[in-house]
Amino acid sequence: MLTWMDSLKGRSLMRLTSFSDAEMLDLVNLAGQLKARRRAGVRGNLLHRKNIALIFEKSSTRTRNSSIIAARDEGGGAEYLTRPDIHFGKKESVKDTARVLGRIYDGILFRGFAQKTCEELAEYSGVPVWNGLTDDYHPTQILADLLTIKETFGGLENCTVAYVGDGRNNVANSLMMGCAKAGVRYVCCTPKELWPDEAILAEAGEVAARNGVDVRVFDDPAKGVKGANVLYTDVWVSMGEESKTAERIKMLRPYQINMDLMRATGNTGGRLMFLHCLPAFHDSNTEFTKTTGALEVTDEVFESPYSKVFDESENRMHTIKALFVSALCDRSKV
Ligand code: CP
Ligand code: NVA
Fold first, then answer.
1. Reported pTM
2. I need a labelling partner for 206 at 20 to 30 A (CA). Which of 187, 265, 282, 330 fits?
3. Atom of ligand 1 at shortest range from CA of 133
4. Banded model confidence at residue 332, pLDDT cuts 50, 70, 90
5. Where along the chain do its domains lie?
């Protein structure tokens, strides 16, 4: 029997603060139930006749495929729309596109540059809109991360997540808030130049305090990761920031996750995992890593038993499905 909160019906996800702490954790819980249901071989009809538009301005492997299969698994459909395919933002404003697609589809998942575009889609479409990554936030990723931690450690209690790398990117912003809302301690290890935005940091600090934990920022990674149970990183150069490649690599090389940093947690014999939202640069032999030197995690860590990155990427599908189901499915009919 699947259970979830009625309050999630019809709701959009702009950033994790769109949901209460309890609602966010309820979604993670529902994703776990849907995962078990799929593993048991059930392909249901929770999204029967529900159609979802996927508007993508940036590339994607996980978010795109997770959305398509999440909808299809439960009897719904998803249509992948890129900027060159539709008039979006060129011949037709975001506001008009929102009003058109809102009449055709039951929900819209957006991946793109400006957070404002996602918010405009939600404001004018009249259907739930989910943020599948903007320059500022990546909330659906963090639902999958929390599910992975919960499954691996058997819960989210007494856990410290240390994020090491670009401390102000979309994943870092959302991870900080997701941990705060889940009552997980969060440490950000990043150079001064990439410190999280003051307002976002302060907001997460308040939420964390409410849940009995804290959010801290260190520029020395070896100090910051001490006692951590999860080491998390992301690419050093996010989509849309390619012009900053050289300066980022120089700045972030000391923040690479390698076995020495894993050992610096003091937890290699206990509760410790490595997470990465993917895609990752981990193999020093690829053409790109050879020429740029961009390598945020070594192969030794990426391929080690500590690494749960493929569980994490699978969980993108189950968590996105939970979002679709909780927003679109009539719970009384389940
Ligand atoms: N982690 C993530 O969002 O991956 P994609 O860019 O492949 O969707
Ligand atoms: N920070 C990365 C995340 C990719 C999933 C980017 O925006 O490119």
1. 0.98
2. 265
3. 3
4. confident
5. 6-137+315-333, 139-313
